[in-house]
Amino acid sequence: MLQTIKEGVSACSQTIDIASSPAAAIGATLAITSAGNDVLKGFVTVDGAVIKKGELHIKFPHYPRTQVLKATLNPAHPFPLRQIQTARNCLILALDAAETFPINNYDSISLKQLLDRVAEFVKKARDTLTHVDTAQAFPLYEVDAKHFSPELPEDLVVEFFVSGSCLVTCVYSLSFQVGLPAIPMNQFQMSLIQNKLMGRSREFVKIDSYKGRKVELIDEVTVESKSPKLEKIFNAITKIEVLCQGLRTKLEAL
Questions:
Q1: pTM of the full structure
Q2: How many Cα atoms occupy the beta-carbon half-sphere of 93 within 13 Å?
Q3: Rounded to the nearest 5°, which phi and psi values hold at 2?
Q4: Do residues 227 and 165 touch, judged by C-beta distance below 8 A?
Q5: Closest listed residue to residue 211, CA positions, set 172, 242, 166
Q6: Could you tell me which residues come within 8 angstroms of residue 238 by beta carbon, excluding any fewer than 6 positions away?
Q7: What pLDDT digit, counting tens, does each position of 17-47 carry?
Q8: Closest CA to 180 of 200, 147, 144, 205
Q9: Strands (E), the chain
Q10: Contact 236, 95 (CB under 8 A)
Q11: Of 52, 102, 138, 183, which is most buried, counting CB atoms within 10 Å of its CB?
Q12: β-strand 79-80 against 50-58: which pairing, if any?
């Protein structure tokens, strides 16, 4: 049974390790296309836990600078997908727990404790891939302009994150203002995250501040792109969760 645990966790860890290794030459190109309109079109190439290259064509109805704006990702400054790296770290901890478990001196109680520890780390990995850390998302987090070449104007924000087996692309058009009536940041942040996950768009939503200045959110678009590699990671996590639950059930029946 102990060997089964180790093999299961190892297989799960290897899946995400391959998909998040900086040296892995397994870049996957995903289409980024808004549904039913031409607001957002383009592609990105995900390589491990970073987006190495890509190009987006943005056509917001209220953006004042140009009719179509091109945002090109900078290969020299890849956009990090921190959720993938964090999930990988969680699975490494699960693997360490299994590999450091004493082989010749254990009982059913200690095995249950091991399964609980492994399951806890795996659950954290799953949660990381399904929930957005608001501290790492607009407007609380300022996206590094160097991720794009040329750098984006300050009134345009592009960010990426993971939601399950999908890569989510969000683009915002801003208008920096003075004296705007603002809603509380935590209220706006919750609404924004909900919209990200539900694929909604909103117009003329007033927010508290960004980069220390009051702004008006003029346009927003969110696109989810299914990723076969993320789906493989998610399936591996599900498999080890089922394994842990099954082994624990067997131990309780002894």
A1: 0.82
A2: 16
A3: -60, -40
A4: yes
A5: 172
A6: 126
A7: 655 554 444 468 999 999 989 999 999 999 8
A8: 205
A9: 28-33, 40-47, 50-58, 69-72, 79-80, 156-163, 166-176, 205-206, 215-226
A10: no
A11: 138
A12: antiparallel
CB 14 within 8 A of CB 29: no
pLDDT in tens, 208-233: 678 888 888 889 999 999 998 889 88
User: Given its phi and psi angles, is residue 208 left (phi above 0), alpha (psi -120 to 50 degrees) or beta?
Assistant: alpha
Task: Answer yes or no: are the C-beta atoms of 171 and 34 closer than 8 Å.
Answer: no
Give the residues across from 223 on adjacent strands: 169
Q: Helix axis angle, 82-99 relative to 228-253, nearest 10°?
A: 30
And the tokens for 27?
Answer: 């870049």
Helix (H, G, I), strand (E, B) or coil at 171: strand
Residue positions counted in the chain:
254
What is the token pair recorded at 22? 């900086």
